[in-house]
# Entry
Amino acid sequence: MREAGRNTGARGWLAGAFALALIAVCVLATEVEAQQSRQPRNLLELLFGRREQRYPEPPPPRKIQTPRAVKKQTKSITSITTAPSRPQPSPKIESAHKVLVVGDFVADGLASGLDEAFAASPGVVIDEHSNGSSGLVRTDYFDWQAQLPAMIAEVKPAVVIVEIGANDRQQMTTSSGKLNFRTDEWFQEYERRVTAFGKIVTDAKIPLLWVGLPAFRPQNMTADALTLNAIYRRAVERIGGEFIDVWDGFVDQDGRFIITGSDINGQQVRLRGSDGINLTAAGKRKLAFYAEKSARRLLGDMTSPDLVRLDGSNLPELLSLPPSEMQNVVKTQPMDLFDPELDGATELLGATPLPVATMPTPREQLVKNGSLPPPPAGRVDDLGVPQPDTLQK
# Structure
């Protein structure tokens, strides 16, 4: 009995000790886990254990919430300082000459550039009548030959500028059938239409300016534009119009299409849109630059920016001047700048022949006598033997 009680007490003591050890292990593990959560373990801690910190870790900084800055609404002056300078439009006079611009979408850009070119000219008005998808091929869509006479009668232009052909690279329908593009029959019919369209202007006794097509990014379109420009030049010059070639302004020195090039001031700018067909604002102004010179020549003094019409309402006031204090004024005749007497001579140079020489030249003596005159003494060709009386004794 006593032995059984001893065994039971020993087992109880061992169980209690085991429970205490288990609690201690759990507490230690909790502390280790807490320490590990405060500082992550690295490779050195895994191999050699974590070093104790000499100094306690500083507390994390408190997040201070700063007030959000309020953006002030200010007027932007970037557009004012970087915008290109353009001439201020002048009010147009009632008797201003009108320039009629007709054609397709390229003509629309040409008219925009001409508006800017003549903005400071009160005697010139740009009147645009364009149809972006039109041409001389699809007469069923828009018949320019039937519409142009009415436009001329309405606008009464002083000059007509034509820019057309970018949409004409397609099949043509005629009374005899359909003609495929790039065939001889197509080019013959197209030249006939160009001539008939231009004669509407020249028969009305109005100056005609036909602007050629620029280069385009698609290579086949550029090649076709060269062929059409040759037709325009030949047909327009035949009926008395003027063909304006703009090709060099939109290609490089090797004749290749360019997107960026020189503007009218020589600055490098973007001339064409991303599609390689349409024109930017600088490209439109450059296209108009080629037609501007001919238009100004035809319009004459009406293109002057300082044009002022004087009438009874704006004549300057004439003031009566006091009598002059100068007495005995001697009047002289005006001096002619081309008067020969200005340089002390009465005749122009070459008016009279030069005087004849009195002594014959060596050449004349050789021809006449058959021998040259004796050379001067001491010259290299003086080969004569000295006389005895000249010898030194």
